[in-house]
Amino acid sequence: MQMTFRWYGEGNDPIPLSHIKQIPGVTGLVWALHDVPVGEVWPMDRILEVKGQAEKAGFNIDVVESVNVHEDIKLGLPSRIQLIENYKQTIRNLAQVGVKVICYNFMPVFDWTRTDLFKELPDGSNALFFEKAKTVDVDVTEVFDRITQGSKGFTMPGFEPEKRPLILNLFEQYKGMTEEKMFENLKFFLDAIIPTCEECDIKMAIHPDDPPWDIFGLPRLIKSEKNIQKFLDLNPSPYNGLTLCSGSLGSGTENDVAAIIRKFHDRIHFAHIRNVKHFDNGDFIECSHRSCDGDVDIADVVKAYHEVGFKGYCRPDHGRHIWGEEAHCRPGYGLYDRALGIMYMWGVWDALEQAQQRLGNIKTSA
Ligand code: CS2
Ligand code: MN
Asked: Is the peptide bond before 211 cis (omega within 30 degrees of 0)?
């Protein structure tokens, strides 16, 4: 398991690389060019700039999250042909600096959706919260405004200000879109890009939809074991794989995350690890990593990765905002709780490694 940490870039992330360096065992940065408009080719000089910054701080840049997919590709519009060519060129550019995995998503209109970005927890920390009632029969522009106004000036993925005037039109374009049709559009995209990925040795890793159910009347694809199987069957190349996000999938009470890992491990290229607590009415809140703090058994998730001999990349997904850092951190992406999460993962991992070694010693001495 190779531990990484998401970093939003110089001037765009309040956390300095020197602080990330002090978290034990982090070898790579998960990065992106967040200011390149979706659909455009990522310029080589900008890619090289990030490579230089990362290497100077002692990190690899093997994982990119995200090269976003243009809505026209998800909608299956004729303009997708040129947009897919651009995506392929970005893949080739990233290959030149040795990128190994691209995390992306195929969520319609929005990326992950929450209704409150700084919901207070009983211990005085706060975290990302989803209140189901606020996503049913609502005005989507109001949802958009609540998120962008509550984000303390940070641009949230999928909620870029330039999208605001386009929202209603986008919803119009998605009218009548079905899960089946979106799966076809996803297959079209994959069949077009996977040969380039094979040539470039870059693995694609789709992120699950978050939350893992249809919202605002839009179909969502990557939300269950059944749909993950369907997704992997769309294109059987090992280069067509998964970002397995325990938090996103774990928000669906019916998803057994550890079982999903054990089943699909050979197609998981990137692991996002986070816990989540459910409420009976369908609401959920993000919480600390420890198994007993939420409803996803994170110790068992780590155990599942250990059992299958996972060699891929891993990162703490989101964290709570603690020790007052909500005053200046990006929602979900403070430093402290993600660092604590890493130490929890290492704790479980090291204990399992030692147990395995002891077992090996007993066998060799017997
Ligand atoms: C991430 C997603 O912050 C997050 O929750 O897991 O935004 C993720 O980066 C994208 O969905 C991947 O394209
Ligand atoms: Mn995630």
From this structure: yes
